[in-house]
Amino acid sequence: MAATTIGTAIEWYDFFLYAAVAGLVFNKVMFGDLDPGLATIVSFLSVGLSFLFRPLGAVLAGHFSDVLGRRVVLMVTLLAMGGATTLIGLVPTYETIGIAAPLLLILFRIIQGISAGGEWGSAVLLAVEHAPVEKRGLFGAGPQAGAPAGLLLSSGMLALMSMIAPGDAFIEWGWRIPFLLSIGLMILGFWIRSGVDESPVFTEMAQIAEQKRANPLGELLRNYFPVVFVGALVFAGNGVVGYMIAGGYVQSWAVNDLGMDRGAVLWAVTGAAVTWLISGVLAGGISDRIGRRNTYLVGFLIQAVAAAALFPLVQNGLLWPAMLLLGVGLGVTYGQQAALYAELFPASVRGSGASITYALGSILGGAFAPTIAAAVVQATGSTVGVTAYLLVATFIGLLAAASLRDRTGIPLGPEHEAEQAERHFTLSR
Asked: Which pLDDT value is given to residue 208?
């Protein structure tokens, strides 16, 4: 649990770091002489572009996770993510190398997207498949906590650099330091993960001769696509709201549109990451007691309140209450995600199922949420439309969660495939 949590936190530190800097720096130095509003939209498009490559990472990682094991995939994705992040810190500005600057950013962002698409599924399955039956939600909340932990690390590091290199110094060189530090985090994560045993469920599957000839992706798409789609909508309901801060939009809007201090905003987002992390771990543990489905229903109601209050609170100077409340809403709709996905799919396709469902949910929910928000505000001059967008996404996530039958505690081993393959929806017999 510790190894998957720490490794996932390092991966999300890399991923979220780019999103935050996109709205604070890249829109100023990497995309030429575009109008500031347009430059911000284009910069967030480069953030969203990586999500389109998550399915590729999910397909590759899901397949090899089901065939070669969860642990091997996690080692490869960590190296890819850390290497791309370090190289982003070395990319010259548009003024220095012209169009090559945004092209290099996009290339490295694509590598990050492929890595993120492959990381999550293997990490959560390694944690959940090692867990005692009655603690799957809690163990699965470990790698889930990696996302807010990564946001905490990235926002905290940028806030620190805004103090060390204030004003123009942050734009000129300060933003690069957190990217370059990624190489040390990558080495640490690789060392930690190299000592983790393979999932016991995969070890059982590897002893089955037929597993070597399996086509997990083909079986998943033939027999479980409705489950994949509905499961993706659950995560999308969380992702649209989460990527207001994880995707860097609120930071950019508060600093560039409202004129707030950059450091103050980054520290408030760091606070949101703390409440997201704590509430996510609690939600995972609570889901072991009241079920994944019930925890989601409560969580989406809390998230709806947080989404409705987000922009009005920030506009009235209540930045910290807005961020802390949002973190709670995100945590209670995220902490149990790992256990939910592990219990949705049979053992033989679980790696592909979890990875592809998560990647599809990321595209539907997080990919272009910051871009859409920036475009809505530029077109209307108001955040009302963005709030409506967040509430619709939350309601869709609520309906998707309500349609799934609660499968908390279902056996995960390959000898229970028949039980795992049936009764996914509340209306099914």
From this structure: 60
